[in-house]
Amino acid sequence: MNVSIKKWARPALLWCTAAAAISTAQADVITDWNATTQTILVAKGHQGPPGYAFVHIPMYDAVNAIDGRYSVFAVRPASATRAASKEAAAATAAYKVLLGAYPDQTAVLEPAYAASLAAIPNGPLKTRGIAIGEEVAAAWLALRAGDGREVPKTYEFETPGPGVYQRTPPGNTTAVAVAPWLAVMRPFAMTSPSQFRAYGPPDLTSQRYAQDLALTQALGSVNSTERSAAETEIAKFYTESPTTFFSHNLRELAAAKDLGVAGNARLFAQVFTTAGDAMIACWDSKFYFNFWRPATAITTDIDDGNPATVRDASWAAVVPTPGHPEYPAGHGCVSGGYAEALRHFFGTSHVKVTLTSTVAGSVPHVFTNTHQMIDEVIMARVFGGMHFQTSGEHGAIIGRKVGNLVAQNHFKRVAR
Q1: Is residue 24 part of a domain?
Q2: Of 141, 104, 109, nearest to 33 (Cα)?
Q3: What are the helix (H) ranges across 119-206?
Q4: Which of 79-83, 137-141, 412-416 has the highest mean pLDDT?
Q5: Are strands 365-367 and 353-355 parallel, antiparallel or unpaired?
Q6: What is the mean predicted confidence (pLDDT) over 202-219?
Q7: pLDDT at residue 16 in the model
Q8: CATH code for the domain in which residue 284 is found
Q9: Domain containing 378: what range?
Q10: pTM, whole model, 2 decimals?
Q11: How many domains does the chain have?
Q12: DSSP code at position 385
């Protein structure tokens, strides 16, 4: 099969040697509480980006109430802010929000909060910071009540047919769809989950669909002879859970940039607000279009009506296919939002970013601009056999749109 890779050029600085370019700068209260949030989200089995936004937005509002350089996102506290401790405000906001959302996690939260407070000198500035954090957290929890986060939602698989999403891998009779509640969760910055609904997958009878299928069929197969070892590493690199991948990588970037407490509060809030809403928008589109995965499309005996596609009942993806509809690609949406948020935050696409993965055999990936990050993740899902290229491209468009919306309306410098 003669398959060419569309729009894919490997960045000059794709990999670096082990242990390269990862800063060991000291953590601060923002990164500490990001790590604590990660511990809780992993323990609860919850989806990452919206969960982080839920915590980092009130941390930002609490710190920004004292710093005062940027726009309020949701809560402007009435408590006295003059010279208050930003560290106490941030830690208290995070602690109270997490405690309100996860009251069964006191064994993790109480020691973390005690450690944060112990690092801050006692006195009126610490007391003021605590009061600010408590006020912001209480108001934020009230604002987000009933937002649909993590609320169980039933999904019924449709009758098999051309293009219709089915359980993966084919033949699995017990698989369930992952997190259908995300499709209807109240967003943080968007007006609705459908605000940036995707264009829709290519028609099954189109040339583009045939090209998409042939590309994934050739490069995403567990037995592919056309995928290189480097491309296999790329495919597996991005299979680390989004709940940990985006979090630890942003902590590493923050350490390298040394932005301070106020800068990190804004960075983490902007990135996870964007990534969280991008994920919500993505799931809206996924369950709206309900499009089948390559694992189904390539192996099924259902006729797709396209004479240019070739069935292969023995085909299997190199990476296990996640349990949610194919279009658009979730990693395209979230990674696109992540990259776009970084572009807006730093005011340029020329941001050097080192990404690491906990997946065995992975090496650090170094990018010199945010566009390279998006290009790689689109192809990573093709190399893994989980997605079609168009799905990744359309997902990245969603991420970019959400990133632009967030930057245009939030986290903006204010006149003083």
Answers
A1: no
A2: 109
A3: 124-143
A4: 137-141
A5: antiparallel
A6: 98
A7: 45
A8: 1.10.606.20
A9: 29-409
A10: 0.94
A11: 1
A12: T
